[in-house]
Structures are given as structure tokens and as C-alpha cells.
């Protein structure tokens, strides 16, 4: 029964969102405003779950992913007209996501996917050393994780460490062919 709890939480959030935003359940186009509202609803519902139980890993994970997705959405939508205020808003979403992912890690140290998400957030926040530590941690504990090599390669690329980036991209491609052709998409 305990294994069903995260699925029940996520399912209840999705049901609530489809009730509030029927366009997600239909063929109508979902606008960025709809997406923002959904992510904010998810954040609200997950926050309620955390208030009920501050050890709820799934609630922290879901809320962290919603903050992460919101940051990504703002980054895409705001990119044509970026202002200092909008950059701060994006930074804040990634910081909140990283904080939630850290809460998950404190409760379950071997949740490697969360290290990847947190590393991505650190990368966007330009905390390159912290991002690298998260990707290194995953690679150390799960050496066949192609995504970790790919993400570490992207971080090397941002740092203009082209040789290290190429090695990580090559390793990611060796482990999973879906990463072929991803070299220059950091």
C-alpha cells in the first residue's frame, strides 16, 4: 500500500488540474498562460501535502519539478524580451526547484534522477561547480547513466571545456544512441 502513495498524490493532482483546466483533456491548444496556471496549481497542491507531512518525498519532488518547468517556461516565453526582473523571476523558480530537490535528497540520498534535475537548475543559475558535483555524483553511483554524461557534457560546454564536453557526449552516445547529434545543443 505504501508504494501507491506517490501515485495517488500525482493522480489526484492531475485529476484536479483536468477539472480546472479542461483544455488539457481536450484537443484545444494549451497556451503558456494555461501552463503557468497548471504549474502554480501543482505547486499549491504539493505545498499543502508538505504542510501535512514535511517528509513527503513525492510532494517535494512534484513541487520541485513544477518550479523547474515554470522556470523553463518563463525562460522560453521571456527570451525575446528579457529584462532584469524576468531574469530574477527565472532564477527564483530554479532556486525554489533546487531547494525542493535538496529536500528530496536529504530524505532519500540515492534518488539519482533528482540530482540530475538539481544539477540542471544549478547550471541555469550559473552555479557550475554545484551542477558538476551533482552530475559527478550520479556518474559515480550509476556509471551507465547516459543522461548524466550528456548533462555534464553540456556543463563542460558552457564552461568552454570542449575536450571534456566531447568525452562526455561520446560516452552518452555510447550508452544511449538517442544522444547522437546532441553535441551542439547545450
UniProtKB/TrEMBL annotation:
Entry keywords, A to Z: Repeat, TPR repeat
- Pfam families attached here? TPR_2 (PF07719)
Is Repeat included in the keywords of this UniProt record?
A: yes
Q: Which organism is it from?
A: Candidatus Zymogenus saltonus
**What protein am I looking at?**
Tetratricopeptide repeat protein
State the InterPro entries in the record. Answer: TPR-like_helical_dom_sf, TPR_2, TPR_rpt, Ycf3
Is Membrane among the key words of this record? no
Ranges occupied by TPR repeats: 146-179
